[in-house]
Amino acid sequence: QVQLVQSGAEVKKPEASVRVSCETSGYTFTDYYIHWMRQAPGQGLEWLGWINPQSGGKFFAQKFQGRISMTTDTSIRAAYMDLLALTSDDTAVYYCARALLYELDFWGQGTLVTVSS
Amino acid sequence: QSVLTQPPSTSGTPGQRVTFSCSGSNSNLGTNFVYWYQQLPGTAPKLLISRDNQRPSGVPDRFSGSKSGTSASLAITGLRSEDEADYFCASWDDNLIHPVFGGGTKLTVL
Predict the structure, then answer these.
(1) Dihedral sign, CA of A55, A68, A113, A39?
(2) SS3 content of chain A, % helix, strand, coil (to 5)
(3) Which residue of B32, B92, B101 is in closest CB contact with A45?
(4) HSE-up of B106 (CA within 13 Å, CB side)?
(5) What percent of chain B shows pLDDT beyond 70?
(6) Considering CB atoms only, which of A45, A106, A109 is closest to B88?
(7) How far does the CA of residue A14 sit from the closest CA of chain B (Å)?
(8) Is there a smaller number of Cβ atoms within 10 Å at the N or the C end of chain B?
(9) pLDDT on residue A72
(10) What is the mean pLDDT of residues A59-88?
(11) What is the C-alpha radius of gyration for chain A, rounded to an integer number of angstroms?
(12) B33 in Cβ contact with A101 (< 8 Å)
């Protein structure tokens, strides 16, 4: 069955960076894009960007340009999201999801990232 | 502020029919499919309705979706206690060139 399993919770200090991983199984990794979203406490979902594991092509939300990176390792069917220069506003649950065209059909379980001094 | 608009909460009693609304604009719901997700506390969102009104394999027919213009709705019939969750809508936005989401509606089963 399709599974996306994310890395565990992180606590970071302001100005630090964080890497969240998303390990996939149960499907052909390169057939689907990986999208990243986040949900701050009490807020709705915010889209961060996507990456195409087949080509390496990526597209980020304008708000995060310059401090976000997304990569994949096709040998182990994993995707990674790095967010730099963290502030308290980045405290949120981060999700990965696979997508075919516009449909985000399977999601990871979420990774809580807490930014606190 | 979410691009798609959903009421924050709703409630119902077991066996009842409840509906959820999702309002957008021409650049998202007006031209693209709506997707509905169920999110149980502390778990990953689960795709409930795809492409306006299609149920993925394993989703009971108690769940149904519809769309008209820039508004969409999700209905649950025969409400059960295990349906208590957050429900959010999503679509693609042609102007933003990425997925957009509603803020979610929390369902309480009384």
Answers:
(1) negative
(2) 10, 55, 40
(3) B101
(4) 8
(5) 100
(6) A45
(7) 24
(8) N
(9) 98
(10) 97
(11) 13
(12) no
